[in-house]
Specification:
With 370 residues, the chain is mainly alpha-helical. It is built from eleven helices and no strands.
Length: 370
């Protein structure tokens, strides 16, 4: 635990971790029962938020305490993630079958659905083991106990208003995560840059968690940002889901064809499955194109509104001590203007502006009060 961290910041950290640890603990019995997939979903979200908060607030807790917490939460997050992914795919296929009007596609889709359900059943043992290990470790209860002690101590030491330190730290975290997200916006010019779309999704997720953690100390001024970033992550998440589907469908079709050839000596029976595989590939491919275009249009709208620049202005204003004059905007990152020079991206700032962001970040590290 760093002694340079003030009480107000520790109180923010403790309050958030306590809330998420409670939420995670409340889902464990439901996960074991396996009667409602939403228990896995809620637990996965809570575990991810805990991991994000433990990284953001790592200086607020004893490192010897934090290490086992992070280890246990990381393990359960991984198992919950695998299970949740299959739950979502199974639910999607049931929805497809309910509205399907191409009867010839049924056999292939049903075969895939059966395969996914079996995989999900096999994963349940791993999920239950992870839940039992987490419960046996006592980590959720430990987090709540330590957090409760920090909150009680903080209330006795100082009033509840956020300190300048809180705004400096949360502001810098928000700007760091925003910088990571903006660095990928040039990939929106290429619909096929799946690797960087995925990286942007992860960056946007980290930005979302950071903003959600910080929003209570900004008196509602981050509420729209939370809404915006959630929408961005939703777009990018669905784009990624479509990419996963397309890869999975290709592997599944290949595996089914090989099995049929091995059994019958030829691939003719595969025709009864191929129609369904083709239907799903076309449906997922078209959905990806549609969602990606919607995402690009939404991003461009944010840039036209100068949304990111306004967020930076607000955060930097709260970071700045009252006695310091407002910073000059000369040389600042312009997050919202469509570049006029050739080679610029219509989806955001040109590369030189991303470089300008890095310069500003390094300057801040050298002189945080600048």
């Amino acid at each position: 635990m760093s002694e340079s961290v003030d009480t107000s910041y520790r109180r923010l950290a403790a309050g958030y971790l306590r809330k998420q640890a409670k939420q995670l603990a409340r889902q464990l019995d439901g996960i074991r029962a396996a009667e409602d997939i939403e228990f896995v979903h809620r637990a996965r979200v809570a575990s991810r938020r805990l991991r994000a908060a433990m990284e953001m607030f790592r200086d607020c807790f004893d490192a010897r305490q934090l290490k086992p917490w992070r280890k246990q939460i990381r393990r359960v997050t991984a198992e919950l993630g695998n299970a949740r992914d299959k739950d979502v795919q199974v639910k999607f296929l049931y929805g497809i079958l309910e509205s399907l009007d191409q009867k010839a596609a049924y056999p292939g889709i049903v075969r895939l659905l059966t395969s996914l359900e079996r995989k999900r059943e096999r994963l349940q043992a791993n999920v239950v083991n992870a839940v039992d290990r987490l419960r046996a470790s006592g980590v959720p209860a430990q987090i709540q106990t330590v957090a409760k002690e920090i909150i009680a101590g903080a209330k006795a030491e100082e009033p509840g208003e956020p300190s300048p330190f809180v705004f400096r730290q949360t502001g810098q975290q928000i700007l760091d995560r925003l910088g990571e997200t903006l660095a990928y916006q040039d990939c929106l010019d290429d619909p096929n840059d799946m690797k960087r779309h995925h990286a942007m999704r992860i960056a946007a997720k980290r930005l979302r968690y950071t903003v959600e953690i910080s929003k209570d100390v900004y008196d509602g001024r981050l509420d729209e940002t939370v809404t915006v970033v959630r929408k961005l992550q939703s777009y990018l998440g669905e784009v990624h889901d479509c990419d996963v589907w397309l890869d999975d469908l290709e592997r599944f079709a290949k595996k089914q064809r090989q099995r049929i050839v091995k059994r019958f000596g030829h691939a003719r029976p595969f025709a009864s499955l191929e129609t369904g595989m083709t239907y799903l590939r076309q449906q997922r491919g078209e959905r990806r194109r549609q969602v990606f275009q919607e995402f690009v249009e939404y991003w461009q709208e944010l840039n036209r509104r100068q949304f990111w620049s306004q967020l930076i202005d607000m955060v930097e204003q709260r970071q700045r001590p009252p006695e310091l004059p407002e910073k000059s905007t000369e040389g600042r990152l312009d997050c919202g203007r469509v570049p006029a020079r050739p080679g610029g991206s219509a989806n955001g700032p040109v590369v030189s502006n991303v470089a300008a962001w890095t310069v500003r970040q390094k300057a801040h590290e050298r002189n945080p009060a600048r």
